[in-house]
Write a structure and sequence with these properties.
single chain; mainly alpha; 2 domains; flat; two-stranded parallel sheet
Length: 119
């Protein structure tokens, strides 16, 4: 739901369907060793302290807050139609894309990565 505000979809769309299991987003912050080595000692210490699960959890909390606010605004706008799929309807979406997902995962050797994401 954060895409409503992040990508300004709320400016061009007025109908939203929620609950289809169509994928997950993964976020990474990366830096080359040379860039890291060029940082001051204080900057390295700050970065080292912030990395790992704590940083990921903070990013997830912020992302969820943005998504919740965007979805609340979309629901409050009387010009919008928001459809929340039932479990059965969501499963129909999952079934429809299962072969696409399986084929892609197989083509990139991503079985272990997909399994980890589904935990």
């Amino acid at each position: 739901a954060s895409t409503l505000s992040d990508f300004k979809l709320d400016e061009v769309a007025d109908a939203y369907t929620l609950g289809a299991p169509l994928g997950r987003l993964a976020f990474f912050a990366v830096m080359g060793q040379g860039s890291y080595d060029a940082l001051s000692g204080d900057a390295k210490a700050a970065l080292d302290e912030a990395r790992g699960c704590g940083l990921g959890n903070n990013a997830e909390t912020a992302w969820n807050a943005t998504a919740d606010a965007a979805l609340e605004a979309a629901r409050a706008d009387g010009a919008n139609t928001v459809v929340d799929l039932s479990a059965e309807e969501a499963q129909a979406f999952a079934d429809a894309v299962s072969n696409v997902v399986a084929d892609y995962v197989s083509s990139v050797g991503g079985d272990a990565a997909l399994a980890a994401m589904q935990e």
